[in-house]
Structure formats: C-alpha cells, structure tokens
Amino acid sequence: MTKIAIIIPARYGSTRFEGKPLALINGKAMIDHTVGVARAAVKDYKNATILVATDDKRIADHCTAKGVEVLMTSENCKTGSDRVLEAAIKLSDEPDIVINLQGDAPLTPVSALRNVIREFSANPKAQVVTPVQQLAWNDLDRLRRNKQTTPFSGTTAVVNKHGRALWFSKNILPAIRKEDKHRHGGELSPVYQHLGLYGYKLDILKKFVNWPEGKYEALEGLEQLRFLENDIPIQCVEISADEVVHSGVDSPEDIPRAEAIMRSRKIAS
After folding, report:
1. First CA to last CA distance, the chain
2. Residues 74, 55 contacting (CB under 8 angstroms)
3. Parallel, antiparallel, or unpaired: how do β-strands 48-54 and 69-72 relate?
4. Label partner for 75 (CA 20 to 30 A): which of 15, 82, 113, 161?
5. pTM of the prediction?
C-alpha cells in the first residue's frame, strides 16, 4: 500500500511576520488550522502520516502539546522543500509520496490535497503533482488589480491538454488578444492560477534538493521551475472554479481576512 506523508514546514522567524505559525486565527494557532486541513484530507486513508517540520522549539512544543507529530530540522534549510525532505528521511518508515503543505496555508481547500493524492493513485507514473484553478473573469480582474500593488503575488500556470505544466510565472499567462471576444465566450478565463501545494515521489524530491538553483527559478522566484528546467514533468490537477481559493497568510494584516473567510466558509480546521 502506498505510504503518504503530509509534511508541514513551519518557521518561527519571518521578516514580515515573526512567530506566524503560532499566530491566533479565531482563537486557534495558525498551524493548528493547517493540521486540521491535512487531517480532513486523509481521514479515509489508513496509511497516511501528518507531521510538522520545524527548527523552532516553541513550535515543536506547541505541536507536541496538541498531539501533533513533529520533527526538528536544521536551521540551515534553504527552502521549505529542503525542510520537508529532511523530515521525510528521518521517518522510521520512509513514505512513497510526500506532500508539502505550507504551515501558513490554513485556507487551503481540503479538495486540493485530496485531488493531489488521487492523482498519484490514478497515475502511477506521476512524479510531481500540484493543483491549479481556472479563474473566472472576475477573479482574473482581481488578480490583475492585486498585481498593480504587489506584482509578485499570485502565480499563474500554463498547462497542456493532458494537464501537464508547460510553465509557471509571476506574470499573468497567457496574454489574451481580443479579450472582449473571449469574455463573451463563457464565465471562465483561459488563465490558471497555481496553488502553492506540491506532492512528490520521494526519490524525485531527493534529486530536486541536490540540483542547483535554475536560471528561471531564480528570475521568477519559483522553485517549481527547477523541475521543468531539469525535464521533470509536473502534473496539474484542477480545483473546481466554484471552490473559493485564497492565498496564504503572509502578514498580521491578513489575520482578520482569514478569520472572516473561515467564519463565512466554515473551512475545515
């Protein structure tokens, strides 16, 4: 039976939001909400592990008190992927599939995790799986407005007819010529937004962290481009356009927004 590990990397130190994983959202620590999403996603899987990977004792102590498995990792991890791998190989029984769920992503739809897991079951050849969502026109307009003030917020994906990623960018891709004509063609735009959630075969993740940073990875600030630059296909799975998808919590100012979303949408926690 395939062994799955959802590993949640969580750092205490953050230039924009120190102590973010322990910040309270509706009276509960952010990391607890994120763990709740993971638990809801794998409640029907018998061979799934959920753990937090951190380099900070305060986060580790909190998770232990809450009954959440936690592994201490090095302070020198360059990326969340490095931290996830370090935790994965410390497990007594190495997983086949590793899912990287960021600790500051308490608003992640449960369906995003489930769809990633299902893709690995349906497609044994898949090496990396990540979710995308086709944007409605009003959501594309919102993304464009956001980029006027924060140009590196939001990532778009271009996928082929088989759902494989052709590219990811902080620019909005593709450009849309004769947009008015396309807008009259339906409610959905041709733009896919990427959710920062990844599932990997463990052996591919091991290779990934040993490859040097890619040229375009460095330019875009998107580590998933390292896979494409090394000819590793990324399979995309779609989240329904009707699903309300929100970005992670990046600053203290995002807390009230997250609280309102959780109250109105009753997001699993």
Report:
1. 27
2. yes
3. parallel
4. 113
5. 0.89
- Please give the DSSP secondary-structure letter assigned to residue 164: B
pLDDT category, 244, cuts 50, 70, 90?
Answer: low
- Return d(Cα 36, Cα 31) in angstroms, integer: 9
Cα(190)–Cα(40) distance, integer angstroms: 31
**Ordered structural domains, the chain, with CATH:** 1-107+252-269 (3.90.550.10), 124-245 (3.90.550.10)
Is residue 34 very low, low, confident or very high in pLDDT (cuts 50, 70, 90)?
very high
* Per-residue pLDDT tens digits for 170-195: 999 999 998 888 898 788 999 999 99
* Burial annotation 13-39 (CB, 10 A radius, 16+ → b, else e): eeeebeebbbbebeeebbbbbbbbbbb
